[in-house]
Amino acid sequence: MKHLQQFEALFNHATIGIILCNKDAEIINFNAQAETQFGYKKEELVGKKIEVLLPQKYRGSHVQDRNRFYAHPENKVMGHGRDLHGQKKDGAEFPVEVSLSHYRDEDNIYAIAFVIDITVRKNNEIAVNRHREELQEITRQVTLLNSDLEQKVENRTKMLRETLAELEKSKKEVTEALEKEKELGDLKSGFVTMASHEFRTPLSTILSSAFLLSKYNGPDDEDKREKHINRIKDAVNDMKSILEDFLSLGKLEDGLVKAKTADFSAAEYREELQHTIEGMMQIAKQGQRIAFSHEGESDIRVDISLLKNIIINLCSNAIKFSPANGNIEVRSLNNGPMLTVSVKDNGIGISEEDQQHLFERFFRAKNAVNIQGTGLGLHIISKYAELLNASISLRSELGNGTEFTISIPQNEKDLTG
């Protein structure tokens, strides 16, 4: 008796629908979950054929299917690649997953159907397809953006060639020609800097998130998909911001870029910088690791875009001037009056002599002349720091790495004024 009660409790309180049919495909038992799924009470279905729970268009063919099952019963999952649907009492159809089992009692055979409502799963599949379409559209926009950039570079290169040709023909205007050449050289350096520092990281973020997005296609991966779609959108927006605000170094030096400070909680700030560090890992050398930490739970007031650009530039340099398998540390501390952010590497280091000129435009340290670079990165960092009213300190020794520290006051009023 006790075992019977336990079985009835298991049957009635199961979280999937359970339907019991006799050899004539008549329903003889129907648990509470099945009542919820189909909208019928058990008493309404006992004695009726199982086909009453199927959409009208499938009932005819199902009679043959269940006759074959009773002739050769075996446990199986129904569907095999095709969608199955049930029909509620009110006529509404819904997608289901059905597993069949059976048992014998003397000369009688009984079929047990285990029914799962997969409406949520199907909706998730629709969401996945929608996100995939959004990703394709983002990819198309990035492709168009790259094409536009290539065209601009080609046009600028053509302009450089034409200008140089004119300079050769205008030897009488030597002073003017040399000045023009310098301006064009600055412009070219600006493009190189933009490509090597600003554009590489958001493009890497887009590519890595697009790759990871294709792997998160399960019903429980909605948050992960949304996260990477947002990272792609953020990266595209960052590139758009770069095009608008940092097309050339001249905008910074002419005062056309302003700091736009905002308040961030410690969690928001930590997440923003963590995404930036994760993006930098896409360009890291083999075995290189970038560790990020933040201390302090007070709110932070900063132009997060300018700060991320500083970190991107410093991390890019740390990656470039450090060996494979090396460690790079990004540490942040908010002690109330001051927010400090440091980037430390174990790379080639900088001599004391070169440290005196490090933030000058086009300056390259003597031990870095054979490493690709324009000599503009640290100069740009100094301009960003000025906009943040921040100071920059440096500790470095040849062969023993470098550590840059940015100190940003937190008790200052809005810097945009």
TrEMBL record:
Top-level taxon of the source organism: Bacteria
Record keywords: Coiled coil, Kinase, Phosphoprotein, Transferase, Two-component regulatory system
Keyword Transmembrane included in the entry's annotation: no
UniProt key word NAD: no
Chain coiled-coil ranges: 121-184
SMART domains: HATPase_c, HisKA, PAS
Gene3D superfamilies: 1.10.287.130, Histidine kinase-like ATPase, C-terminal domain (3.30.565.10), PAS domain (3.30.450.20)
EC id: 2.7.13.3
Domain spans labelled Histidine kinase: 194-412
PAS domain ranges (all copies): 3-56
Reactions mediated catalytically: ATP + protein L-histidine = ADP + protein N-phospho-L-histidine
Chain ranges of the PAC domain: 80-130
Pfam families: HATPase_c (PF02518), HisKA (PF00512), PAS_9 (PF13426)
PROSITE patterns, per database record: HIS_KIN (PS50109), PAC (PS50113), PAS (PS50112)
Matching InterPro entries: HATPase_C_sf, HATPase_dom, His_kinase_dom, HisK_dim/P_dom, HisK_dim/P_sf, PAS, PAS-assoc_C, PAS-like_dom_sf
Alphabetized PANTHER family for the sequence: SENSOR HISTIDINE KINASE RCSC, TWO-COMPONENT HISTIDINE KINASE
Name of this protein: histidine kinase
Source species of the chain: Sediminibacterium roseum
